[in-house]
Amino acid sequence: MRTDKNDRQELILRLIKEHDISTQDELTALVNSKGFNVTQATCSRDIKELGIIKVTMPNRNTKYAVLERTGDVAPGRLLAVFSNCLISCKSAMNMVVIKTLPGMAQAAASALDSMHLSSVVGSIAGDDTVFVAAPGIEEAEALVSTIVDMMNPGSSSDV
Predict the structure, then answer these.
(1) Residue 23, Cα to own-chain centre: how many angstroms?
(2) What DSSP string describes 67-100?
(3) Cα separation of 158 and 139, whole Å?
(4) CA 14 to CA 64: how far, in whole Å?
(5) If you count DSSP H runs as helices and E runs as strands, how many of each does the chain have, helices first?
(6) Tell me: the pLDDT tens digits for 80-119?
(7) How crowded is residue 25: how many other Cβ atoms within 10 Å of its Cβ?
(8) DSSP letter, residue 118
(9) How far is CA 122 from the centre of its chain?
(10) Which residues pair with 100 in a beta bridge?
């Protein structure tokens, strides 16, 4: 039975990159199958510390994804900045329009770009608005769901 936090968190990151994991229970079971003895609460804390997000796929299923580090900024802090500066998020065809607090659009776009989401082709930021190009309409709608979930955990509709 292994308990080292660093080893466990490295395993969690690897598992999320290698598998489509959609619940904390699935993650807990996978981590335990690799020789660790962890609870769902431990996995939940690790998810938060590691800056792991839940993304909506174009088929409307969800899965966990790993935020990539940008410089020396921890992913959890990056996610906090992103989610705290957002006001609204809507799709328009294959575009997503994100409204932010004044002066925060560039920080939000930078955070979004660092997430390396497959549904983001690119972004352009002004003062309080970010335009995000997605490959198609379904991907744009899935991206809106992902962003709204980051804004309001537990919500799944436009804000």
Answers:
(1) 14
(2) PPPBTTB-HHHHHHHHHHHEEEEEEETTEEEEEE
(3) 15
(4) 12
(5) 6, 6
(6) 778 889 999 999 999 999 999 999 999 899 888 877 788 8
(7) 11
(8) T
(9) 16
(10) 86
For the stretch 53-80, pLDDT in tens is 888 887 888 888 886 654 445 556 677 7
Q: At a CB cut-off of 8 Å and minimum separation 6, what does 122 contact?
A: 113, 132, 133
- What letter represents residue 24's amino acid? Q
Coil, helix or strand for 62? strand
CB-neighbour burial class of residue 77 (10 A; exposed 0-12, middle 13-18, buried 19+): exposed
Token pair for 132 = 């995000």
Residue 94 to residues 54, 137, 159: CA-CA distances in angstroms? Answer: 21, 4, 18
Domains of the chain: 5-50 (1.10.10.10), 75-151 (3.30.1360.40)
